[in-house]
Write a structure and sequence with these properties.
single chain; about 350 residues; 4-stranded antiparallel β-sheet
Length: about 350
Amino acid sequence: MFHEFVAHRGGAGKGHPPASNAPRRPVPPIDSCVARSPSITVDSVAQQPPQQYRFAQDLPQHAHERLWAMRQHHFFTSDLSVNEFLLVKEVGFHPLGLVMGSSIFHIGTQMVRPGVSEELTTMTQALYHSRELAMARLEEEAYELGADGVVAVRLTVNLHAWGANIIEFLTIGTAVKAETAGNWRAPDDKPFTSDLSGQDFWTLLHAGYRPLGFVMGNCVYYVGQTMPQQGFQQQMQGYPQQMQGYPQQMQGYPQQQQVQNQELTGPTQALYDARELAMERMQAEAEGLQAHGIVGVTVEETNHTWGPTVLEFSAVGTAVVAIRDDHHIAQPTLVLSVNE
């Protein structure tokens, strides 16, 4: 069982914050969260979370107050560097304010079959939904500011000391609005999101593309073959102390793999498959936005709090679409630093 910890941070006597009019960011249906491969089907994936977790919850009261004050006073905050700020302004956007979203999730456990490498679908969906909730709240804050998009989005993971398997996903970015007429939002009329830096955002627009959305995919995988406990003892004598424990890590591999150099095909295929599933799910999100491609893709591997045999692979990037046919890229110019 997995669920989100929800806390309203409104002031005393203010009650719950009013519901936002922003369009919600729905968590994609289970079909789009499952790789289209013969080994994993929709029926093989654990049931979806309860309905109340399919959409972002209301923003805290203090978030409404902060965003309202920025709109009224025409005051902005931003995590952009000076160079990024000036480049975003130069390309025709002005910052409206720093926006954020958060979701603290308790990740439930899932039984594994010892020695069998496979995806842990319940945990995959829990982490995916938590990220989606954090992104939805960031988009809601941007919508309340009247933004056309959010640039320089950062998605971070925090492990707090409140208990086992409690993870917070935090998203932060700068909401921006175009200074000229035009529709810069995503196809669903939500502000676009992008993890590109201000410099990359400038370059992308000048090259004839625009961002549509920050897209992501993930996969939690159990690697069935853990490392052997037999052999090597004589071969390891004389090696540095930090390598003396290596035989205890090698438990589970065939004897012949302990005495020769060769590929470990089981773990190779397991990790390969997990990365491919994360990439495929990220691509499915981009296709849902009618994107032409994804730029700035990163694939990360994390153990979180599960130990060495359970890994999460996450793939993130910015989905983009062409806004003109001629993709002229300015020639780079020589810059000489005068710093010592």
